[in-house]
Amino acid sequence: MTSPDIVIIGSGIGGATIAAGLAGSGANILILERGEPLPVTPHARDSRAIFVDGHYRPKEFWREAGGQPFNPGNYYYVGGNSKFYGAVLIRYRREDFAELEHFGGLSPAWPFPYEELEPWYSRAEQLFRVRGALGDDPTEPFHSTPYPFDPVPDEPAIARARSELQDLGLHPASLPLGVDIDAWLKDGKTPWDAFPNTGEGKVDAQSGPLTAALVDKNIRLETGAYVEHLEVSPDGSAIVAIHYRQGNELKVVTPRLVILSAGAINSAAILLRSPSPAGKGLANSSDHVGRNFMNHNSSAMLAIDPRRRNDSVYQKTLMLNDYYLSDGKGGRPLGNVQLLGKIDGNILKANVNWAPKFATDFMAGHAIDWYLMCEDLPDPESRVMVDGKGIVLQWHRSNMEALAGLTKVMRENFRACGYPIVLSRPFDKRTPSHQCGTVRMGSDPAAAPLDPWCRSFDHQNLFVVDGGFLPTSAAVNPALTIAAQALRVADHIRKTELSS
After folding, report:
1. What is the rounded distance in angstroms from the CA atom of residue 250 to the CA atom of residue 242?
2. 193 CB-side CA count, 13 A
3. Residues 237-265, buried b or exposed e (16+ Cβ, 10 A)?
4. What is the mean pLDDT of the chain?
5. How far apart, in whole angstroms, are the C-alpha atoms of residue 313 and residue 342?
6. Which residue among 298, 377, 407, 482 is buried most deeply as judged by most CB within 10 Å?
7. Rounded distance, CA 344 to CA 351, Å?
8. Any idea what DSSP says for residue 177?
C-alpha cells in the first residue's frame, strides 16, 4: 500500500492537463492509466486497418438499457481518446455559459460565466500549442491572449470552399487546431482526424500536457492500472483508498486527494460501482451521478461535385458558426459546421458497405467532407448505469430538430456553392461524439455532484475533472474547455490544499 499526495485516475485531456497544472507544486502525484502507450506500427496510417478492420477498437462491450450489447468507440491508451481526436481546440462561446433556449428545450447556465474561465482558456491554448486566427468568426468570444501559432493552411480545394461560402455571405473561419502540420505529414500523408497519433504531429493529452507533467520527478505514471472501485471512510466524508488491478495483482493506494479523470462514462461507472452505505455509489447524494449524459447530435455531410476532384490530404481546417447562435433567421440555435478529415474509399466503405469499392473511391475523391454538430441537452433520464462491472447506457437524444435544421440549411448552401450531390448520415452510439455531463458541476448539491471547482459535495478530497463535469454540451468540441477547467482546478488545489 502506497500513500502519494494525489492520485489522478486517467491520462486523457482532463487527467493529463491537471497533472501539468500541478507540476512543480512539490506534491507527490501518481497517475493511474488503464491503457498502455500506443504502439508505433504501420496500422496507425492505414485507413483500412482503422476504419474497416477496427484494429484499435476496444475489446469490450457496453449494453443499451433493455437492449443489445454494442462495441463502443472509446479508446484505452495513454492519452485516452485524444490519441484519436480531431485536435480541434475551440472555446465554448460566451453565450454557452448562460441559459439558452433551443428547439429541444433549455440549456442551463453554468455556475460561472465565460469571463471566469477565460484566463485558463488562454493558458490551455499555449499548453496545447494551438494554431488559429482571430477575426473571421462573429461568434468568437474575447481572447486575452492571441493564439500562439498561425492557423494550419487550407489546401487548394478547401481554399476554394472557403471562398465559395464567403460568396454566399457566410463567415467561414480557420479551425483552432493542436496540429504541427509539417511534423504530421512527415510521418505519413494522411488526415489526423480519427487517426492515432504515434508521433509529435498532433498535440494530444500525451504529447502535450502529460509530457510536460512528467518532467516533474514527483509525478509518475503507472499503466495497465484498471481501477476497480474507490473506498470511502466510515463517516463517508473522504475517499481513503483506491483499489485497482494491474495484471493479475490487486493493489491499493491511499492518497490525500483523488482526481477522477477516467472520462464521462468510466468516471461515472467507477463512482457507481464503488461501495457506499446508501448502496447507490459515491459522490451521489444528489442521485445525479451517471445522469444528464450528453453526446453531440452529429452528422457527416459529403458535398460532391463529380466534375472536380478534391486532392486534399488532411482537409480539416475550416469551421462555420453562422448558425451557432440562431438559425440565421432570428430563430433558435442550430449548431457548428466544421470539416472532417479527408475521407477516402476505405473510410466511406466502412459506413456504406453496400456500395462497391470503385464507387466509394469515386465519391470520396470528389467530395468535401463536413461534420455537423448540434447541442444535446441534459436530461436526468439520459444516463450511465452499471450492471456488476458492465456499463449500461441509456441515451435519450434531444434537440434533434436542430440537427435537422442544420442539415437542411447546409444542404442548400452547398448546392448553392455548386455541389449537385449532397449526402448526409447521422453518427450513432458507437461514435463517442464528445461524451459529457455524467458527474456535472453546479452550485446546488441537490442537483449536481460537484461544486464549481469540480470538488465532490459529498467527499471533500475527491475531484472529477473530465467531460463528466460539463453542465452543458454546447455545440463545439469540448477538449479545450475540459483543459481550461483542469488548469483552473489545479490552481485552486495549489491554493487550498498544497499551500501549507
Report:
1. 11
2. 23
3. ebbbbbebeeeeeebebebbbbbbbbbbb
4. 95
5. 6
6. 482
7. 11
8. B
Amino acid, single-letter form, for residue 106: L
**Block residue for cell numbers 501549507:** 500
What structural domains and CATH numbers belong to the chain? 6-496 (3.50.50.60)
Q: On the CB side of 44, how many CA atoms lie within 13 Å of its CA?
A: 19
The answer to whether 178 and 89 have CB atoms below 8 angstroms apart is yes
What's the mean pLDDT in 226-253? Answer: 96
How far apart are the C-alpha atoms of 250 and 268, rounded to whole Å?
21
Question: 120: closest CA among 25, 264, 207, 18?
Answer: 18
Distance from C-alpha of 262 to C-alpha of 244, rounded to nearest angstrom: 13
Give me the phi and psi of 65, to 5 degrees please.
-60, 120
As a whole number of angstroms, the distance between CA 295 and CA 428 comes to 10
The three cell numbers locating residue 211? 509530457
Is the CB of residue 12 less than 8 Å from the CB of residue 82? Answer: yes
Condensed to tens digits (0 to 9), the pLDDT of residues 100-112 reads 999 999 999 999 9
Bridge partners (DSSP) of residue 70 are: 62
How far apart CA 234 and CA 43 sit, in angstroms, is: 49
pTM (whole model) above 0.90: yes
Contact between 178 and 204 (Cβ < 8 Å):
yes
d(CA 264, CA 261): 8
Q: Report in angstroms the alpha-carbon separations of 467 from 180, 292, 297, 449, 454.
A: 25, 12, 16, 14, 11
